[in-house]
Amino acid sequence: xxxxxxxxxxxxxxxxxxxxxxxxxxxxxxxxxxxxxxxxxxxxxxxxxxxxxxxxxxxxxxxxxxxxxxxxxxxxxxxxxxxxxxxxxxxxxxxxxxxxxxxxxxxxxxxxxxxxxxxxxxxx
Length: 124
Description:
Elements: E1 2-5, E2 10-13, H1 22-30, H2 34-60, H3 66-73, H4 77-108, H5 112-118
Antiparallel strand pairs: 1-2
Helix pairs in contact: 4-5
């Protein structure tokens, strides 16, 4: 872990850049082709660059653990329940609209698809 010192706090950020990437070395050992070896080296350099950028962003945002990012992105239970209520309400309204369209189609002797096209609603 690399130590990150802020204004008044010290954070331990994972040292992403200096972690060993044994898989690249092993892949190079099994490669007889110089083009493949060059591609592996290029991929390794790209990975190293991405890890460095990630580590810099984590330092900038004062994130000491990668799992903190997932926690912040995951909605809390209250938000999940609200979303489920909204989806249920949406489905109820959609079902009601389809029932009305079906009644109109039956009354006019048309297909549901024709009524939906007529009122500018796309079918599923």
